[in-house]
Amino acid sequence: MADQSIFKHEGRLGGSTELDADGKPSLKYIGLFVRDIGATVEELSRIWGVESWERYDFTPPQSSVMVGNTFRLKVARAYLLGLLFQICQPIDDVDIFAETSPVWGKFLQKSFGGIQHICVSVDNWERVVNRVVENGGRIYKCLSHGGKRCAHIEGEIGNMAMAIEERTALGVPAAKASGVYNLEGKIGRTAELDAIAQPTLQHLGIYVSDRNTFMRYVSKVWGVSEWETLEFIPTQQAMVVGDSIRLGMANTNVLGLLLHVSERLDDADTFAKMSPVWAEWERTRGEGHYHLCLSVDSWEQVVDTVRSRGAHLFASSSYEGRRWAHFLCPVTSLNIEIEERPEP
User: Fold this and answer.
1) Which domain holds residue 246?
2) Are 141 and 221 found together in one domain?
């Protein structure tokens, strides 16, 4: 039976076909920028059960930075529900950081942090990056680290920042990589939840102010061929937690990652009354990477576990017969959606 929450459903999922053929992309990490890395690590460890973190200071020499200026960061890395998280905090004052690294710095000036970019590893790095630049993408930071080049592409419309990293067969350990200092700890994971959930990334959530303008931009820069569009308006009766929302959506694949793009259909005041968490994010951040959605087994057990550890469950309903729950981690403004994996 058709989902009664779906209206004006048309088109079909496309993808960045030429880039995919050249790059054979795979997700490398989720990049967060935060103002307080200690509080972020503590919160994610408590809520999601991260066992340990690798931590170090990172200041690449200017000679390794091909585009932009060098920078000084505190970095923490661990796997959360099977995804590598790379959390960064500037060592310098945020305003000073914004002068030398304006895209990263301005991101932090707006809010206390969250997902800033997604990093994808590719073959044929130069060909992929050159194609993106030829299509109108702008590199705001590019550096070589640990034997790999990485280009950060600005999301000029929609703030969907992406990093493209060179895939190499032999990497250089972080302890030996130029610019790494005070290395300690090890990369851990959320072993308990992983065993229960067997999590897989379902989609990346992007929030925008105008999905049609965003779709044209992404199609041009990333070579997307087609989009699936719809309006998502669940009934209030279907909502288990939170109020009903009205979203215009557009879905496609970029570098092998499924994007769910959303814009509000109501005016700002109505949206704030119905969806205060989403409205606050829009007020402080505007647009960009909003949430990660993971499909899991044992959905109820995962949701109950995370909720008992202090994550804020602010919206939950069902979609095409699958239950979903949006959790907010207040310190990081990190929104993770847990979706029930459909029966095979």
Assistant:
1) 6-16+193-340
2) no
Give the strands of the sheet with 138-145, arranged side by side: 65-67, 138-145, 148-154, 161-166, 113-122, 26-34, 83-90, 73-80, 54-58, 180-185
Contact predicate 207/259, CB 8 Å: no
Q: Is residue 104 part of a domain?
A: yes
- What the block records as the tokens of 65 is 């930075």
CA angle 206, 154, 157 (to 5 degrees): 55
Determine the pLDDT at residue 1: 47
Q: What is the pLDDT of residues 207-236, one digit of tens each?
A: 999 999 999 999 999 999 999 999 999 989
User: In the 8-state DSSP scheme, what is residue 341?
Assistant: P
Q: How far apart, in whole angstroms, are the C-alpha atoms of residue 19 and residue 225?
A: 11
CA distance 83 to 48: 12
| CA atoms of 158 and 217, how far apart (whole Å) | 9
Which residues does 1 contact at the CB level (< 8 Å), separation at least 6?
none
What single letter denotes the amino acid at residue 6? I
CA distance 179 to 27: 24
Closest CA to 160 of 261, 12, 66, 77: 261
How many C-beta atoms surround the C-beta of residue 86 within 10 A?
20
Strand-pair partners of 145: 148
Q: Domain count of the chain?
A: 2
The string of DSSP codes covering 285-310 is H-SEEEEEEEEESSHHHHHHHHHHTT
Relative to beta strand 288-296, strand 334-340 is: parallel
Residue 106 shares a structural domain with residue 152:
yes
Q: What CATH number has the domain bearing residue 117?
A: 3.10.180.10
Verdict on whether the full-model pTM lies above 0.85 = yes
CB 77 within 8 A of CB 85: yes
The secondary structure of 67-81 as a DSSP string is ES----EEEEEEEET
- The residue ranges of the chain whose pLDDT is under 50 are 1
Whole-number pLDDT of residue 165: 98
**Are residues 216 and 116 part of one domain?**
no
